[in-house]
Amino acid sequence: MQAPPKGGTPWNWGFAGDDWNGVDASGRPWRCLSGLRQSPINVPPLSVRRDGLLSSVLNLLGSGGDETNEIPRNLRTSWFYPRLVSNGSNVEVINNGHTIQAEWLSPFAADVQIAVPALQFNTATVTAVLSMDAYDPAVRVRATPLQFHFHATSEHALVGRYFPLEMHIVHRVTGLPACDAAGGCIMVTGVLFELGSGGDNPLLEAIWEAMPLREGAINFLRAGADIRLGDLLPPLSARNYVTYEGSLTTPPCSEGLLWHVFLQPQTISQAQVGVYGTCDKATGDTYICRLRPNKEGVRVWMVSAACLRVTTAA
Fold first, then answer.
1. What is the 8-class DSSP label of residue 166?
2. Domain segments of the chain as ranges
3. CA-to-CA distance for 262 and 276, rounded, in angstroms?
4. pTM confidence score
5. Element (H, E) at 141
6. Positions marked active-site
7. With the CA atoms of 131, 154, 219 and 286 taken in that order, what torsion angle do they form, in degrees rounded to the nearest 10?
8. Third-level CATH fold of 42-307
């Protein structure tokens, strides 16, 4: 999850983030080196209930490791993204020099909801759900998707394993008084991609077709092409995820973000990874293998899809 370029201290990936010591456009110090809740993280092996509900996750992540809380069913995030169809001028694909990003210029009627404490509604932030339990009165607020972008290789790791690609869907929560006062709180959904054996991922084809290869370029998604974000998420029956309080992964590395990382990777072809890696090669810089070291010691919470009541499609 990156910050938009707004001035401040220039930065690059030359030292994998170890030299990110600067200020933002308003003069506030970055949190990259001093923050205690920084992203990305290496998702640790999860010691959770072994009653069969989480067997698929345990098989993926291995047994043992840190104890992880499980989010109660009534407090879990829900995602619904309708099909977004391009009219030739309402969806931009942007090469901003740090990632490839897609933004929509027309309303996108998504329905993404997070839980917050009802009794502390006026002061609650977007990460308040992480301190709630099943008996706390809760209300749900909407998180509006703003854009999505990609990182290659992945920023998050699962028990030390990185993936060829990671997608971040960035949302702003503005239905909370504390968030409205701060200009909106940020929630991010992370989707990992692994190499598949079945050819290109058709859900990525339109974006890859419009992908600008040079920094600063913007292309429109061709008319009639569509984006199906809901289909890029794991199916509801396998929608296991971890959630934690983290940060932007590029300067100013602001903290207080609510992160979700799905544990079942989607697929991408080697050819699609190769196309992504050609971005900005003319300047001698590529998006491949840009990694900021993972942060350890961050507490994560677990959600098992086996506990979810499947009532809607996404």
1. E
2. 42-307
3. 22
4. 0.86
5. strand 138-142
6. 98
7. 140
8. Carbonic Anhydrase II (3.10.200)
